[in-house]
């Protein structure tokens, strides 16, 4: 006999919608995928279809994980990879599906998933950090995400860049997609690594090319060293504000060989003399993190209701 689900999560990305149904021990009972539509009415309809599919496996809380933010004052979405900016997206999904959903940012979902069932299991507090197209994450303490009244907690990529490495390496201050200047994301994201290399060489290279060529191409090695300088200062900010026990890394750049060792060595040198640094680990959940984190969030909200 199939176990009744404890919760379900739907991870909404720019190219796919993935629904996952979880058993009480958090093993996967069922999963399904749909392509992400390119227009808003079709997107809302596709999300309602995914929710109806989830409901066929039994009653349980349902969470939705997606990139971007939802303004708690207006209910309107702000997202760069979905046709939903300026729309009351969560409310429209709930109305189309005829049931409530729990909404969570995808980076916060990964953090909750890793702090509860992954690489930061048992750590308090735990920080999740995505190093991909952008830079963002979340903070979990006591098994819950920290409250975020404005829904912007975890948008770490919009911290200002640390001045010392910017000056030392003569890096230009760049505009950020958020409308501000000099955000950490402009250099610490995967495209940011390419910008550092372009600043040194005058040529465009992919982040994958730069990481793979560190051992043989001096300019790529220097670009990586500059990126590590910036990343270390960024992690120091997290340590001096949040003081995490574990930092979990996800996103494309997290797969760079040796990254956790490089950052641990540098952070140990940079921190206040004699004080410990957090464990830096790679996320374990892979493709499951978004949906699993959404399901965990939905279960937490249901228990709080």
From TrEMBL:
Keywords linked to the UniProt accession: ATP-binding, Carbohydrate metabolism, Kinase, Metal-binding, Nucleotide-binding, Transferase, Zinc
Q: Which InterPro entries match?
A: ATPase_NBD (IPR043129), ROK (IPR000600)
- Superkingdom of this entry's organism? Bacteria
Question: Which reaction is recorded as catalysed by this protein?
Answer: N-acetyl-D-glucosamine + ATP = N-acetyl-D-glucosamine 6-phosphate + ADP + H(+)
- Its EC number(s): 2.7.1.59
User: Which class of enzymes does this protein belong to?
Assistant: transferase
Q: Which Pfam families match?
A: ROK
Q: Does the keyword Zinc apply?
A: yes
Listed name of the protein: N-acetylglucosamine kinase
């Amino acid at each position: 006999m199939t176990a009744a689900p404890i919760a379900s999560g739907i991870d909404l990305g720019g190219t796919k919608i993935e629904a996952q149904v979880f058993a009480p021990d958090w093993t996967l009972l069922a999963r399904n995928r749909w392509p992400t539509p390119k227009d808003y009415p079709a997107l809302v309809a596709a999300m309602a279809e995914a929710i109806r599919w989830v409901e066929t496996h039994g009653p349980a809380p349902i969470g939705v994980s997606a990139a971007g933010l939802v303004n708690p004052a207006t209910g309107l979405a702000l997202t760069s990879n979905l046709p939903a900016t300026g729309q009351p997206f969560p409310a429209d999904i709930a109305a189309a599906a005829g049931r409530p959903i729990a909404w969570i940012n995808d980076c916060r979902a990964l953090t909750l998933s890793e702090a509860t069932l992954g690489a930061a299991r048992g750590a308090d507090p735990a920080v999740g950090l995505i190093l991909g197209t952008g830079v963002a994450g979340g903070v979990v303490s006591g098994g819950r995400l920290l409250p975020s009244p404005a829904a912007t907690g975890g948008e770490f990529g919009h911290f200002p860049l640390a001045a010392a490495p910017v000056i030392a390496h003569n890096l230009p201050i760049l505009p950020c997609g958020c409308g501000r200047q000099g955000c950490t994301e402009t250099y610490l994201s995967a495209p940011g690594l390419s910008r550092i290399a372009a600043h040194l060489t005058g040529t465009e290279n992919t982040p994958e090319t730069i990481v793979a060529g560190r051992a043989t191409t001096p300019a790529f090695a220097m670009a990586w060293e500059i990126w590590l300088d910036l990343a270390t200062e960024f992690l120091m900010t997290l340590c001096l504000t949040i003081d995490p026990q574990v930092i979990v890394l996800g996103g494309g750049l997290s797969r760079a060989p040796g990254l956790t060792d490089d950052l641990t060595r540098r952070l140990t040198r940079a921190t206040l003399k004699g004080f410990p640094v957090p464990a830096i680990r790679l996320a374990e959940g892979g493709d499951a993190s978004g949906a699993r984190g959404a399901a965990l969030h939905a279960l937490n909200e249901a228990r709080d209701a």
